[in-house]
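User: Quick sanity check before I run a bigger batch. Here is a single chain. Can you write out its predicted 3D structure?
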Amino acid sequence: MATEQSQKLITVTPKAAEKIKEFMKEEAEKPEFLRVYVQGGGCSGLSYGMGFELKPEEDDTVIEEEGVKMLVDSYSQEHLKGANIDYIESLMGSGFKINNPNVTKSCSCGHSFNTA
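Assistant: Done. Predicted structure follows.
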């Protein structure tokens, strides 16, 4: 398990951090970490995932941003370097949005992407 200090792997906006903490408090298990990951799937090849964890795995890097401790596995790190997590509220709905500078192609639905 490593701790990311020098270069920002992932950043979190204050609004997203507020929502993450709010959702964590609602969980019965009282998780300490937010896992952010990339997995295969979707029409463009990759998709994002987020979930709560009680502890890190051996392959995880721990990042703390805006008071939120995040876990990112080594595979996901390649695709998420420099990404930013935001929380958007609009008339069309609300939810987390990952702004990722590594994306070279995304599908029209906006749920899957590909990197170089």
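The helical segments are 14-26, 74-80.

User: Great, the batch can go ahead then.
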